[in-house]
Amino acid sequence: MEKRKIVGLILFSLVTGLLVGGLEVIFGKILIQVTEWRLSYFSYLILFLPIAGLIIEFIYRRYGGISDQGMGLIFDVGHGDQENIPLRLIPIVMFSTWITHLFGGSAGREGVAVQIGGTLSHRMSQGKLAKYLPTENMPKIALITGMAAGFSGLFQTPIAAVFFALEVLVAGRFEIKALLPASIASVTAFFISSYLGLEKFIFPINQSISLDFSLVVKFVALGLIFGIVGRLFSYTLSKGKKLAKDLLVNPYYRIFIGGIVIALLILLLHGGRYAGLGTNLIVEGLNGEGIHSYDFILKLVLTVLTLSVGFQGGEVTPLFSIGCSLGIVLAPMFGLPIELVGAAGYIAVFGSGTNTLLAPILIGGEVFGFQFIPVFFITMSVAYCCNGNHSIYNKQKMLGEK
């Protein structure tokens, strides 16, 4: 590759990280404010969730075009099945996610972060900058670069963000050609996001462990359980979306009636405990404030319902919440520290649900401490191997059977 193209790629990555990091701060800070409003006025706002659903559906039908494919469109471009991502996807998915969270839907945020990053970087690579960039595989490289920046800017886990973007498009294959630009964009987005004051979740575990045969066996068993739960989430999400479309063909009826059902369930089940991202379950559980044995399954069901009927958001933070809640329940049964098993569940259910391996392990290191990488590696490896190649991303490609 000629030097001019290398310099162009580096500058492109820096600009991508800068712009995407800034957008993630806007999205993340407004989402935090929206969540605070929901907590303050929950009993009133939850009643309007069905109306919020109609607004979301109208926006996508009237203005969205192919943007309504969401993450599927990102994967289509990554696989070369689509050429363009409309820029209007960014404001539409941001606003729709804010609305979902404001009125009490159970959803995540990572899908939005990745869509923001992937959309912006892909469009930038097609503009005036194109002549300064490499031509071979550039659409995919640009997309992965933006995805890494988006994940890093919102979650502030720059190392994990790079590997998530590299491995998520095709399970079992790393897009190594995108390593340099993805790394530059991810680190840049991380620093921009941190400098502008976006909150980061970090929970250092102040414990020491030594691996022995008994401990390895316990975490292998835990990995099996977490892997099955992650697989259950991705399987039920896929079936839930299909079932919702079969039962209610009209998308307005689907999201309105679904919104009524979800609002009633979220209101009746502990008065909003399962609304939003699910970070409340993570924080309460890791701080020893108590987790119900059924928290993980109710969060799973309500998140699947929310996303199946057409509300917007992501799946990753709910997966973190489901895994962490389950781990905290299982820890005493295995005679292990609650925080450590909660952390293992946090990363392993996410990894199983997304069909990724290295990114979850690195998230564990960046959030809980790199001294636990051996434990995270054992747990995640087992979870990854037993998830049956199921993924929350239905357009993720597989290299073959595990």
From TrEMBL:
Which spans are transmembrane here? 7-27, 39-60, 141-166, 178-198, 210-233, 253-275, 296-313, 369-387
Residues forming coiled coils? none
Q: Report the subcellular localization.
A: Membrane
Assign the protein's first listed, main location to one coarse class: membrane
Top-level taxon of origin: Bacteria
> What does the record say about its membrane topology?
Multi-pass membrane protein
Q: Name one GO molecular function term.
A: chloride transmembrane transporter activity
Q: Which UniProt keywords apply?
A: Membrane, Transmembrane, Transmembrane helix
Where in the sequence is the signal peptide annotated?
none
Write out the GO cellular component annotations: membrane
| InterPro entries membership | Cl-channel_core, ClC, ClC-type_chloride_channel
UniProt keyword annotation of Transmembrane helix present: yes
The protein in question is named Chloride channel protein
Q: What is the lineage of its organism?
A: Bacteria, Bacillati, Bacillota, Bacilli, Lactobacillales
